[in-house]
Amino acid sequence: MENQSITRVVLVACGSFNPITNMHLRMFELARDHLEDTGQYSVVKGIISPVGDAYKKKGLIEASHRVEMARLATESSSWIKVDPWESLQLEWLETAKVVRHHYEELLAAEINSDDVDTVKYGKKRRFEEKYFEGSAHRKRSDGPQLMLLCGADVLESFGIPNLWKQEDIAEIVGRYGLVCITRSGSDPHKFIHQSDVLWKYRKNIHIVHEWVTNEISATHVRRALRRGRSVRYLLPDGIVRYIQEHNLYSAESEQKNADVILAPLQRYTGAPSS
Which of 2, 4, 59, 260 is the most buried (most CB within 10 A)? Predict the structure, then answer.
């Protein structure tokens, strides 16, 4: 009976993963520990969703490399997987659409996992009518919950003009939930207090404190690689080898998209791409 009150959770992390680092992987472990320590959740899966090339971020190398590095990095994990769906889209997709996609996939998997018998068939029909006829965004009370996993920098980016739509923030935080990993110098509680939309859904935001300071960032890793410095122990060994074998991250690659406006800024301001 006790287990029935435990909500199963799937964590989704969206981002460039350019390249994926040990800190990206640690975020999942930290989030799982935090949620399960509450006694309310059981984290059953983690999904890494690398952004597509159409995001047009400066220094963003091809999605095929970023996805493969993420796959290599998660080979030893029993619960964190890479989903290439977002990276394969020809146009940049808002994070809300990506989260929505993964949630609908989660709902479909729940339906398919039911046995087809007389009793459950009726249950499945009611479930399908409720969740796939105009209301697919709602949370299913008796099913798994999806939460977006991010760092404090993503939370704070909600306040950057023209980077996010307010209705997307409301959907992500209000309908699904957010798990935010803090880092030194960030104050997510203050940012939530200053944002009306985040304050409204503050009970759906889980703030996780990382007490073992880890300031690894992909930006710092790319800088070290450009300068011929070692990045071992910042990334899984397999990723270091992959970068060396494919000669990734140079001064030239860092200038990719340098003269291109970031996709969300193009879309929300109507600015030309370059």
Answer: 59
